[in-house]
Every structure is written in structure tokens, then in C-alpha cells.
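ok here's KinB signaling pathway activation protein:
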Amino acid sequence: MTIRKWFFLFWTTMAIGAGATLVTGLAMQLMDQTLRAYGWSGAGFNTFNMVLVGLLIGAFSQMGFFAYLTVNYIALSVFRKSYLWSALQAYTTVFALGFLVYVLYQSREQTGMVLFWALPIVLAAVAWGVGYWKTRLTNNKAFIPTLFLMIVVTSIEAWPSFQGEGGEVSASAIWFMMIPLAACNAYQILTLQRITSSPDKKEAASARGAKTA
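and the structure:
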């Protein structure tokens, strides 16, 4: 990956984070009036803050994404057999999803039962959809790593929101972090093969597509 391609991924991921955070924040404010700070007169200030937070979330998501790519590279060299690393990722993904359910169940009195049921189901469904899309863009081997990224890495990145402040866990804070992080991670994993493939590979793929058409 060249510096120019990395910079493109960097600023576009931050833009995705800013957009997803803004949409999430505005939707949450419309549904819960208590979340609207400074009232309608401070709408511009609220928007600026949400965009700023979204840019930080985008940058944080990219740090997690490149950390996963590094771990993935090291693991493949350690395990030698790619299916062993895939099996470990699959086990970790199932475990992480179960642990997420446990954490939400423990904090259900503060966050509510809606989050307890909705978040794991939505996260698993989104991860499955992104994984299926990734296999269509590349190959079937990309399915489990994509699930791992979307569930395990996203949950780790959003972990501070599960801790709350002063022991108070907020469902709004969890959604506010999980949605933009999931959007950023989905964008990065689906864009990776496009920005890392060489022109020769793109031409070969186009030629294969022309022959099969």
C-alpha cells in the first residue's frame, strides 16, 4: 500500500465516521429529547461536536483496523496453516458475541432489555452481511476474518462505552460508538482489496470477467 492510498483510506474513513456519528447523534436526539444539549439554539454547536467526535472515531477505527491487519499477518506466519487461524478467529468471534450478551445482561437495569436483545442481533446480522459482501468481492476465505473484524474488533474499540462514567452505563453511549465504528470497519474491510490490488491484477480480473461474460 502506497502513502497516497493510505492517505485516501485515512481521510475517507474519518469522513465515514463523521457522517455516521452525525446521523446517529441526530437520530438519537430526535428520539430522546433529553439528549439535546443547549436546545435548538445550540444545534450548530451540537453538530460541530458530533462531527468532531466522528472524526476521532474514524481515526480510532483505523488504528484498530491496522492493528488487526498486523495481528493477522503475524498469526498467519505463526500458524502456517491458514485454516487454523481461521478456526481460532471463528471461536473467538462466537466467544466475543457471547461475552457481549453477558455484559449487556449484567447492565440491563441501566441500559434496558431492548439493547440486550437488539445489539447482539444487529451486530451479528451486519457482520454476516458485510462478510457475505466481502466474499463476493474476493473469495470465501475472507468471510471469517470479516466476521472477526466486525464483531470482535468493533466490540473492543467500543469497550469504553460499556464501562460508562462513574459506574453508570448508558445505552445511548453504546449505540453512539458502536454504529459509527461498525460503519468505519465495514467500509475499510470492503475497500481494502480495491486499494491494495495492483493495476495488473485489476486488468487480469477485468479480462477474466470479459471472458466469462
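+1. Residues 3-199 form one domain.
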